[in-house]
UniProtKB/TrEMBL annotation:
Protein name: GTPase Der
Residues engaged in binding GTP 2: 212-219, 259-263, 324-327
GO biological process: ribosome biogenesis
Presence of keyword tRNA processing: no
Name of the gene this protein is made from: der
Organism: Mesorhizobium alhagi CCNWXJ12-2
Protein family (similarity comment): Belongs to the TRAFAC class TrmE-Era-EngA-EngB-Septin-like GTPase superfamily. EngA (Der) GTPase family.
Function comment: GTPase that plays an essential role in the late steps of ribosome biogenesis.
Domain of life: Bacteria
Origin organism lineage: Bacteria, Pseudomonadati, Pseudomonadota, Alphaproteobacteria, Hyphomicrobiales
Length: 466
């Protein structure tokens, strides 16, 4: 088990900048606006030979709990609880502020190991700030420059000193997990050796991403599912900006839930933030096995909803639709008929996609949603034996053979399943490039029906037979 680090400190001291440096990617949102980093995130990070997870936090804000700041503060308290080590950051360029001391008190009370980080040490006049930093009472300040990458070796040593060698050098698990899931993308499925397909493993945590337009109710849904105020929700569109993960269990099944930012942005000033968030959403989709797309049932099937489904299918993930805010629908019978018709017509690439009506606010329909998720996950993992496939193919060839092209009939020799997650098939044929798309679509739809594979992307690769 590796350890978890929370980077804490008042707004603008440079937490996100250090976070980015440790995580090695532009994941956190850096901005000069105080308090722009709003949510909690956990990401695998590296500091030389140390591997750990970083929880990036909102920073402590002193304000009443009814406000956004108050809620951010509550989030930070959760982060402190989950962290094994705290980086408490002060700004040696600006010097100490009253807030710093108040926050340092909270950190000290947590009893967690702390490394006091004095950032912006490269700035002119930082020397004075460095001396002041002692006054927060958290020991010796480690001077660093998050922006310029200075002081990192000292930071490494301070981590080891604070945790002890044994804790500090745990094995690295999260990084491998990500690498593994990303390796599934664009995988070459031309190897027809079906025996290599791994069996469905129910003991591994199922990775679920929750996506959808801003205000569709993603955060409310996740809160309702995990029954804890872990995510910020509110009427401000796009308040949940980054993807974060929550570990959870449903009926004994281990689950890792990802919340993503809303994928659309209206306000211009926010454009920069939103662009990063979209790629973050994509990242979450790639990380996930199942993607719950939250539709606002009062305004369903906006163009962007369809684009999200397309993206999920392209990435080979399995979608489940949640028609949320069903409590606001006056004519549920008619609405249901309309949604059914639209789902079938607008999403032919995932025929049979599971869609569930629910209210994240009242909690109705959540069990149905999770049943659909598990069912879809099973289909996404399913595998059909080569024997069954070829008996099916015989029937197809007898009744609906491929068309003739330029006077010559296309031949199909055999079919085999090369992979799962999503199901991928290899079709051995005389002339792969001559096979019409319409016939391939026909085959995929027939396969879907014959072997009960609704609602998941299906890959079909054609290979030249000798
Ligand atoms: P957070 O709100 O506490 O997460 O702080 P940010 O990471 O967003 O940084 C706040 C500002 O401080 C940004 O303008 C950063 O570019 C700047 N900053 C961060 N680290 C350093 C540093 O090491 N030196 C200097 N001079 N500025 C920094
Ligand atoms: P997000 O931007 O997708 O994370 O959306 P939020 O979870 O922040 O929800 C946006 C707004 O919709 C909030 O005001 C929620 O209270 C409200 N909302 C979410 N789910 C429901 C629901 O099932 N019914 C109703 N009536 N309102 C909901």
């Amino acid at each position: 088990m590796s350890f978890k680090v929370a980077i804490l400190g008042r707004p603008n001291v440079g937490k996100s900048t250090l976070f980015n440096r440790l995580v090695g990617k532009k994941l956190a949102l850096v901005d000069d606006t105080p308090g722009v980093t709003r949510d909690r995130r956990v990401h695998p990070a590296k500091l030389y030979d140390l591997h750990f997870d970083v929880i990036d936090t909102a920073g402590f804000e002193t304000a009443a709990a009814a406000t956004l700041q108050g809620r951010m503060r509550a989030q930070t308290e959760i982060a402190i609880r989950e962290a094994d080590l705290i980086f408490f950051m002060v700004d040696s360029k600006s010097g100490l502020m009253p807030d710093d001391k108040a926050f340092a008190d909270i950190v000290r009370r947590s009893g967690k190991p702390v490394v006091l980080v004095a950032n912006k040490a490269e700035a002119r006049g930082a020397q004075g700030g460095m001396l002041e930093a002692w006054e927060v009472g958290l020991g010796e300040p480690i001077p660093i420059s998050a922006e310029h990458g200075q002081g990192m070796p000292d930071l490494r040593d301070a981590v080891i000193a604070a945790l002890g060698e044994e804790r500090a050098f745990g094995e690295e698990d999260t990084v491998d997990e990500i690498a593994e899931s990303e390796a599934l993308i664009g995988e070459d499925i031309t190897d027809p050796d079906a025996e290599d397909i791994p069996a469905y493993d129910e003991t591994k945590p199922m990775r679920i991403a929750v996506v959808g337009r801003p205000n569709a109710g993603k955060s409310t849904l996740i809160n309702a599912l995990v029954e804890e105020e872990r995510l910020l929700t509110g009427p401000e569109a796009g308040i949940t900006r980054d993807s974060i993960s929550v570990d959870w269990e449903w009926r004994g099944r281990r689950i890792k839930l990802f919340d993503t930012a809303g994928m659309r942005r209206k306000a211009k000033i926010q454009e920069k933030l939103e662009k990063m968030s979209v790629s973050d959403g994509l990242r979450a989709i790639r990380f996930a096995e199942i993607v719950i797309i939250v539709f606002d049932a009062t305004i369903p099937f906006e163009k962007q909803d369809l684009q999200i489904v397309d993206l999920i299918v392209r990435e080979g993930r399995a979608p489940v639709i949640a028609f949320n805010k069903w409590d606001l629908i006056d004519n549920p019978q008619e609405m249901l008929a309309e949604l059914r018709e639209k789902t079938t017509r607008l999403l032919p690439q995932v025929r049979g996609i599971r869609a569930v009506t629910l209210s994240a606010e009242t909690g109705r329909g959540l069990d149905k949603l999770m049943e659909a998720v598990l069912g879809t996950h099973r289909v996404w993992n399913s595998r059909v034996s080569t024997g069954k496939l070829n008996r099916w193919l015989e029937g197809i060839l007898a009744h609906h053979p491929p068309p003739a092209v330029a006077g010559r009939r296309l031949k199909i020799k055999y079919i085999t399943q090369a992979k799962t997650r999503p199901p991928g098939f290899v079709l051995s044929t005389s002339r792969p490039d001559a096979m019409p798309q319409s016939y391939i679509r026909y085959l995929v739809n027939s396969l879907r029906e014959a072997f009960d594979l609704p609602g998941v992307p299906i890959r079909m690769v054609l290979r030249a037979s000798e």
